[in-house]
Write a structure and sequence with these properties.
Oligomer: single chain
Largest sheet: 10 strands, mixed
Number of strands: 12
Distance between the termini: 46 Å
Order of helices and strands: HHHEEHEEEHHEEHEEEEHEHHHHHHHH
């Protein structure tokens, strides 16, 4: 192609021709840089892209999971009796799959199943007793006055809800778990008869359904019974610290899953387009997952620190770091920063819950639908309580070692994932 020649007439100013040439050159340079940027991504960005499900994949599995849960709850409602808690169909999706934080390969969905006490009883939520641990509460249950009068007039025997589901006038988390598990098992067996391939497992307070789809994909669904209190939920999770056995059965753990999701949605609105905040956490979650699943003995930092520890630290970081520092091209810096703050939290042996006792969120309490009573400073809850100091020290040393070579870790994770994809693709070709 012949070079472009500008015919400059005598009455055409020379400086305008020079200006045009400069504009053309600058435009060409900018286009070249943009093309190069699209073609080349850092190891961090490439790994971040590889470890997440596409929106269409996750949406398809989510619809399937929600349909299974609703069918299961419909059967459970049919099997339930009036002297047990009521079961709501208004399921609450919680966790990484509903927050855009899920990483491959496991397909998991968490649901809180709201339950309610029978209408002839009233409840009272208690959090202030001195011996109740932070993050926990109790649910007092008593008969409505009109229900008592009705029993006396009609010579009815007092209802058995207090006997079956309560302990000394408080709703028993243990009794609710056992009732929910039994009912879910019976309902699941009926679903099996409809040709649905599923298994049931118990994991903490959750009843887990393992379902094989027609596409040979296994989906895990965790169901946790929960009681609603002013947009916050109390879940039937056993307290692991020291309490008399009789008291352990009647304390319920607070869940702020709804508030966490609301905070992320509101924060996203103020962040730059294509912000790197989610990828930063997902990379560290994936690193932890792969380190734990490695053939060698899992490192202490993987076994002692949960994904919720990482998420909590990330939430604090997201709240404090200026929005201008979450641009897509700052992913590597944010991963390094989160890792640095994780190490710092282990050195200080302190990682406070993001909501409990966080007075910095007082002004946002209304928009986050969180009762202000939980933001009082004396309610700060250290998530590292219960981890042995020696275990914490070993985790600290391991994370410092990772920090020195974090670039290599990310690159190796990407190479391992690429090799896994290559092998999987080759095996599919052989099958065809």
């Amino acid at each position: 192609m012949p070079p472009i020649q500008l015919q400059i007439q005598r009455d055409f100013p020379y400086w305008i021709a020079v200006l045009l040439l400069l504009c053309i050159s600058c435009t060409a340079f900018i286009c070249f840089k943009c093309c190069c940027r699209k073609r080349y991504k850092s190891f961090y960005h490439r790994l971040g892209d590889e470890i997440v499900f596409s929106d269409s994949q996750l949406s398809e599995h989510q619809l399937f999971a929600e349909n299974i849960v609703k069918n299961l709850l419909e059967i459970m409602q049919h099997l339930n009796t009036k002297d047990h808690p009521g079961i709501s169909e208004d399921i609450v999706g919680t966790g990484s799959a509903f927050e855009g934080l899920k990483v491959k390969p496991e397909i998991e969905f968490d649901f809180m199943i709201p339950i309610s006490i029978p209408y002839s009883y009233r409840s009272k939520f208690i959090f202030e007793k001195y011996w109740i641990p932070n993050m926990y509460g109790m649910i007092g249950v008593s008969k409505q006055w009109w229900s008592r009068v009705s029993e006396v007039i009609n010579h009815q025997h007092p209802g058995s809800f207090l006997d079956k589901m309560c302990d000394d006038g408080y709703l028993s988390a243990k009794a609710v778990r056992e009732w929910f598990q039994s009912l879910a098992d019976r309902a699941a067996n009926m679903l099996k008869k409809r040709g649905i391939d599923l298994k049931l497992l118990q994991q903490g307070p959750a009843r887990t359904l393992k379902i094989m789809t027609s596409g040979e994909v296994t989906i895990s669904i965790d169901l946790v019974p929960a009681v609603k209190y002013q947009n916050v939920y109390l879940v039937a999770k056993t307290y692991e610290g020291y309490l008399p056995e009789s008291s352990k059965d009647i304390v319920w753990r607070l869940s702020f899953s709804v508030q966490e999701k609301a905070f992320l949605e509101q924060k996203t609105l103020s962040l730059p387009k294509n912000a790197c905040h989610k990828k930063a956490l997902q990379i560290l979650k994936y690193l932890k997952q792969e380190e734990r699943n490695s053939k060698r003995s899992p490192p202490h930092w993987c076994t002692s620190l949960s994904s919720y520890h990482l998420k909590t630290l990330w939430l604090h970081q997201l709240h404090k770091t200026p929005t201008s520092q979450w641009h897509d091209n700052q992913l590597k810096e944010r991963v390094a920063e989160i890792l640095d703050h994780l190490i710092g939290s282990l050195e200080s042996k302190t990682l406070y819950h993001f909501f409990m006792g966080n007075t910095e969120l007082t002004e946002e309490a209304a928009t986050l639908c969180i009762p202000r009573r939980f933001l009082r400073t004396h309610l700060k809850s250290n998530l590292y309580d219960g981890i042995h100091p020696d275990t914490m020290y070993q985790a600290l040393l391991q994370l410092k070692s990772i920090q020195i070579s974090i670039d290599s870790y990310v690159e190796n994770l990407l190479l391992a994932l690429s090799e896994e994809n290559r092998v999987h693709f080759a095996s599919n070709i052989r099958i065809i």
